[in-house]
Structures are given as structure tokens and as C-alpha cells.
Amino acid sequence: MIIRTKKEKFKFKILEDTIKKKWVFFYFLILFSFFFIILSAEQSNVEVINSKYLYRFDGVLIPSYAQNGKFNTILILDSGIEKILIDKSELDIIDNVDFKLSFFVLPLNNKKSSITIVIQKKGKLLEYQIPVIEKDPYPKSEIILDNSKKEIVSSKNTEKREEESKFFNNLLNTKSNLRYFTLPFINPLEIMMIVSVFGNSRVYKDLNMNILYTSTHLGVDLKASENTKVYAISTARVAFAGYSITRGNCIYLDHGYGLYSSYFHLNKLNVKERQIVFAGDLIGYSGSTGISTGPHLHLGATFLGINLDPISLINEMNEIEENYSRIKINQSNK
Ligand SMILES: [Zn+2]
């Protein structure tokens, strides 16, 4: 009995010696319970809203994966969410009527196989890792330029082309901290038929089949005969409406927060720079100006200067409201 008491006293002394500062012990206790709460809550509240999204317990809807070159949205339902970070860079949180949203894009040449999404909610940091899928493996396409179009890419125009690409890069990296866009997004043509997808490699040749240059197609080509009506995909400020030697008559729309859409090879423009256009407004007529081998509409989109598949932008911006109503229905059924 006496020996046991001695042992107990001894043990207690060791404990006192090693944990001299009480807060260290409490810190670990709090940390342990915090992780336990996250793990158990996460497992019991994960809910699949559609094939891509998970509804998390902490009031955000994050994608279950991201694909290079595609548009991704995060839907925020909880007003306690203060910050969202993707691989340490903070995203803008944009107000909508019933919810808030954020978006992000990974470039086509991204090499990371996963990204970390950190949500700050009432001072707490919640972390999610989501896998990254490579761009779709599209086959190479060959484009043959006749002598008049070949002239545009000749060395005498190199300086002019470089000057233009610098100008448009600057424009697309200019972020308006204003929301112009409205939901849902609208198709730019009444009939949508994709003739060339986003992200495929292209080889440009002359009539003698000599290779002129290679490039990646950074937009989608939509079937459109000469003078087909072209509409704004969402509300925006006209950032550029004019002529470029490679893009032809073109329009760049600033939808706000770093998001732009672009319309190339137009025959006629129906808007002026700095004008506000609404979703579905007639902005121009299709054509074949610039480097183009026949009438069509080249539709482009960028976010913070990163090129993305404009079809994924339209689809995501339409699904976000659908996803929100699905959540509301799911919640009211519980
Ligand atoms: Zn194109």
C-alpha cells in the first residue's frame, strides 16, 4: 500500500515535470477534439448533389474534382464563411441573392495532381484536397491557310502580332472588382454546334502543305454562317470592340472579378467600348475576318488571364442555381 502511494506520487511528479505549462496539455486536448469533430462531421454530412459536387457540413458546395482548363464554382451557403483559398491564394467571394459564390480555373499546362481548398469559417480553417484531372485528350487538327490568310502570319506581321497579344494579355489581366455578370448565362448563338473544341493542338499549313506554325486552340469554334446573330453570354462592360489582324473584328466583354468572354472573326460589330450589355443582347454578326478559313464564331473565355473552356463556363454558371435549388429541396425534405 505504501509502495503504491509512493509510485503514484512519483508518477505525478514526472507528469508535473514534463508538462510544466498547463496550456500545452490543453492545447493538445483542444486540437485533438477539433480534429475529431471535423472527421466525424465530414463523414456524416457529405452529400452528392450531382456527379461533380459534394455538399459539405460547413455550408459550402465544393467540386469533388477539378479539370485543367475548365471553370469551377464554389457555392457558399453559410454567412460565417470568411475566406476561401486555393493552394494559398485567396478567392473573391461574390454576393448573389440567396448565396455567395467563388470560382477558380487551373491552366491547361497545370502539372499538379491535386489542389487544396481552405475554407475559413468563424476563424477556423477547414481543409479539403481535391484531385485534378488533365485536359481531355483531343486529337491534333490541321488548318490550311490560303495566300491571303498566310500573309497575316508572315514575318512582316510578327511585330504587329506580338504588339496585339501584349495588348490583349494586359486587358485580360485587368480585374474589375465589380460584378457585371448575371445568372444564368446565355448561349452566344441560337443554335449551338461545336466544330472545334477548346485545348486541341493545331498545325497551320500553307497550300503547299508547308508548316507555318503550331498552336493550342484557346476557345471553341461554333458553327455559324455569315451574319448569324451573336449574343452576349452574360451582362458585361464592353472592354474592347475593334479590329485585330489575327482575331479579325472582335469583342471582349468584362463580366467583372477577372472574368472575360471574347468573340472573334465577326463580320459586323453592334457594340461600342465601355458600353454595358445585358445577357442575351445582340453584340455582333459572325464572319470570317482575321485568321479564319470560313465563317464561324470563335468563343473564348478567361479568368484572371487564364484561358478556359467557355462551354464549361456557361454550363457551370447555369448549374450553380440548379445546385442551389437542389440543396434547398434536400434540406426541406430532412
Ligand atoms: Zn477558334
Quick description:
Helices cover 25% and strands 37% of the residues.
Architecture blueprint of SSEs:
Layout: H1 2-18, H2 22-45, E1 47-48, E2 53-55, E3 60-63, E4 66-67, E5 71-76, E6 81-86, E7 89-90, E8 94-95, E9 100-105, E10 114-121, E11 124-133, E12 141-144, H3 147-152, H4 158-172, E13 194-196, E14 201-205, E15 211-216, E16 220-223, E17 229-231, E18 236-244, E19 248-256, E20 259-269, E21 276-277, E22 282-286, E23 296-303, E24 306-308, H5 310-332
Describe the structure.
By secondary structure, the chain is an alpha+beta fold. The chain folds into 3 domains: 2-42, no CATH class; 46-135, Immunoglobulins (Immunoglobulin-like); 141-303, Distorted Sandwich (Glucose Permease (Domain IIA)). It is built from 5 helices and 24 strands. It has helices spanning 2-18, 22-45, 147-152, 158-172, 310-332, and strands at 47-48, 53-55, 60-63, 66-67, 71-76, 81-86, 89-90, 94-95, 100-105, 114-121, 124-133, 141-144, 194-196, 201-205, 211-216, 220-223, 229-231, 236-244, 248-256, 259-269, 276-277, 282-286, 296-303, 306-308. Strands 13, 16, 17, 18, 19, 20, 21, 22, 23 and 24 form a 10-stranded antiparallel beta sheet that branches. A hairpin with a 2-residue loop joins strand 19 and strand 20 (259-269). It is globular, with a radius of gyration of 27 Å. The protein binds zinc ion. Zinc ion binds at residues 196, 217, 219, 221, 298.
